[in-house]
Structures are given as structure tokens and as C-alpha cells.
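Morning run. Coffee first, then this:
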Amino acid sequence: MTARNRLPALLLITLAAPAQAQDGEKRTRIILGPQLSPSWPGADKFSVGPYIDVSRTRDSAFEYEAPDESFGSPLVHAGDFAFGPAFGFIGKRKASDIGADLPKVGFTVEAGGFAQVSLTPSLRIRAEGRKGLSGHKGWTGEISADYIARQGDDRLFSVGPRVTLGDARYTRAYFGVTPAAAVASGLPAYDPGGGVQSVGVTAGYHRMLGRNWGIAVYGRYDRLVGDAAGSPITRQLGSRSQPSGGIALSYTFGGR
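And here it is:
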């Protein structure tokens, strides 16, 4: 998961241990480490952020979570189907950051929901949508599929495609150039629409190194397409390539 989506889990780390003490049957796993991701959509610069996840289970194995999915736990399970809230964050983009006199896009808090279905134990499909409550103030979302190969919690590998979408308001915030901004920045005016923003793939791996400790790694590559790829901001100041990745230690405690 990207840095923008993992930040809320910091709040749960302090809650997990006290809750565990009240219920010895549950197990808790905390994943914590650094990750590198684009500083904003379309950036050719990268930011270091936290790669964090907190999971709890009563079952013999933790429920699968993709390493790049937005933060949020299922509220409803109905067989192999589940849905719940999804939250994301994107750091601000200033003119000095991008290297041209373009309007600032403020720090964005995104809130929305997801739905997912496990077609088989080895194949999960997920869709999510989030609304920017600040910053870009548009809608963005993602459709993903993951092939999962695991041996309980001892070893887990996943890989699958990603399609990222954004509405016109979202796309214009990061990739549009108004006539006024064109005069100020020297870039040509550009009025993009919404649709598919990028296509990519994510792979993740987690392995236990003992009873409690483990290691988690992931890599993701996205390629901007459509109006996002054709933007003069992308072509002159950013990059169509959007790689990210992280490495972390995991610690599991509780249970019997």
C-alpha cells in the first residue's frame, strides 16, 4: 500500500495491545517499515513514508490484505463477499515542489468505501472509491485483482493488476493547466477529463522468521495513460512511470 493510505494505521497501534490483553484468543500482527512512493500523482519525485498495517484475527490465518490497498476493515462479511470503509491521504503539491507556477493542491484526506469478493481461495477481486474531502476534492478509485499463494501465515505471495481511475475534478487538479496557469507557468493550457488514470501491477511477499517475527516486502509499478499521460505537466515536469515499494518487519502476538 502506498504511504498516503497507510498513515491511519498509526492510530491503531496504540489500541491493539490493550484490546489484546482482554481477549487471549485473538492474535494481532503489526507490520512496520519504510516505503518509497511518488510524492503526488504524476510526480517524478519520491517521498519516504511509513509502510504500516495492523491486523487481528481469531482464525488460524490472518485475512489476506494487499500491501497497497487503502486503509479500512470490512464491516460486513457475507460468505466470500465483504465491504467496508476506505481511507486515503495524498501530500500537498506546491509550485516550488513541481518546478512551475501552477496552483497548489492541498493535503488531501480521502474517504469512501470498498467491496471485494474471493472467487476462490487464490483469487480476490476488489473495487474501491474515495472522495477527496480536501485538496483535490474529486473522486478517485481503483479496481484490482490478486492471485494469492500462501502456507497459512508462514508464507504468503500475491501478485495482480491494478487500474486507477479519477473523475474530471481529480484529474484537473493534478494534470490540468488553466489558461491563467498557462500564462504563469509557460505550459500550454490543458483541460483533461476523467477516466482511467493508470494501469499497473503489484506484487507482495510476507514470510515469518520465527514464532513472532516476520518480514514483508512489496513492489508496485503504475503507468499513466489517457489524459493523465498526455498532460504537459506529466510530459515536462513529471513522469508516466509511477513505481513504489516498501520493506517492513512484522510482529505477531497473542493467541495460544
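The radius of gyration is 19 Å. Good start to the day.
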